């Protein structure tokens, strides 16, 4: 047996072998073993047998952690007796370098071998990954995908470790089985979720046939994991990753080297008073900070440096040496604390806007120019803030924070605004900072500011660099533990001033808070559940609501539509006898999700409506109280829940509108944080925080009855898709908030699948409804989502100045 070619791809080695076939009627089988004799998976694909009886195969083996792997060919006669065998040993090192050589010098040959297992459909099982994400807290990788099998076949799954040994206990969840058709052949697809340890080892998922078809395997070595993380990651903020963000930083640096600052000399607009308290500031921090202000392309500013450490002779000398009429050094008698020190600067500020700036941080040269441009477009703006990143001790810009537009409920969880805050001077001089909140004085200031005005602009660009130092809260909020409690007190006072019956609580994450809103009285909540047959699904939903929900004043209205099974109507009779707050009403018409819910609402008596899919199951007892406490607020119109797939990954943590990069882009609404582990905080912890959003799913949506009626309910032009998107956006148009709360946690038994809306039967309907969305809500397709900016999509890079 001779090896005639080698290549690798996605955790697999493809080995071209040939040998003489003396008896064409014989059967050829392939085997593989490690150097320790452990049998390894292998599949072989016949390429040809030529006139000289030279038989050619491509053997496919997973790239495990073994040092060597053997490929053994055996021939058997028609009676099963072995005629001959041949064996060849390959080292992993040789496979790697031979593959690189062949890709470079025999590319066409290598590509002809590669993926032969995936392009073969007859008598073949395929495993296709679609989602790959790391659950950091659990030290796991989560892989989702589907196994595609010949019709009538069933797969037996095994997990192998890096040495090829079977892992006796492993975490594999199988979803529903769906029939499909590929290349004219009937196939069967089984979705799966696999969790493997993120321990640096290689693992291989093996799907073996019970009918003699070729097995499929998914090998997750380091290279394959990296490839799947890049191509199958559900993360919405990939550009926040170290490698991705490095590209953004380099592009920005290149841009700035080409800027002619004098071209901006005539830019006019408001005057910015930049306030910087100094206390024992290291000289190199001072030079960087002042230099970043002097390097601003926009020139109408003043810099007020408040020196609270006059005994520091070196610092005093460095301040004396500053030669710029726009810089004012104010010597303080002693250090009265950051709030009191800053207030001196606010009092002496002469600008239109006061800008808060820390002594060890730096600004992007475009910072003030972009602020001035925003104010020029809207002179009524009372405050502005921007995106930021961290400046580490090696001088690298890392960990960018791409922020939401003004988001009141997110602000009540933590100070996501932070830097670079510019406030209209009249507000700054009126509010000032309060010394009793030192450590969280900026948070207290913001909370008091938003009680006066919410005319606050977010400039979606990284214009502020927050230095990471040993004492900085940028490095660890735990460095200033007192700030955590000061922030909680500031938040509680804010809630009290707003007249909200709510309690601010600390969390295990410093300077992140949780607000519990009390339910006022006991208003009736009407739960609307459309249903067609599906007794098992519906009964699970109703029983979980009835048996697990602590809030008791609710009614359940099941909206029967077009059921045909006798057991369904028997269940309706039985469930109404068992629960006196359950009613069944009948919709007599074709399926229209919007019309069905509108019909159900007419039979509802509640002050609040809760739209609920029949495939929902309650997890935590306080879910309805959490939603109702928020929905009772005067400024809230809709509250959405956090929904999980049955495999304990996120199905819904809000919906965002993806901006069109051009007129040909699909864009539109999509779920954020989907497929993350249920405990994964997501980007900037946003999968675990109460926040305002543009859209939440109607699979579990609470709304005020008054708002629902005023808007005429759901838009019945949206028969299946986008009705919840349209309703949420219409509610936002009224000035009411759409709030997402992770405190309402439920299972949504919507199986992970390839997406039913791509099936031929639904394409025309889907496109029609998408067209209506584009027509009605074109602003979101053009401007994007205010709560998830351009950094959440690839558009970010094309928009970067």
Automatic annotation (TrEMBL):
Name used for this protein in its record: GalNAc(5)-diNAcBac-PP-undecaprenol beta-1,3-glucosyltransferase
Annotated Gene3D superfamilies: Spore Coat Polysaccharide Biosynthesis Protein SpsA, Chain A
Record key words, sorted: Glycosyltransferase, Transferase
Entry annotated with the keyword Transferase: yes
PANTHER family registered for this protein in UniProt: RHAMNOSYLTRANSFERASE WBBL (PTHR43179:SF7)
Annotated SUPFAM superfamilies: Nucleotide-diphospho-sugar transferases
Enzyme class, spelled out: transferase
Organism: Collinsella intestinalis
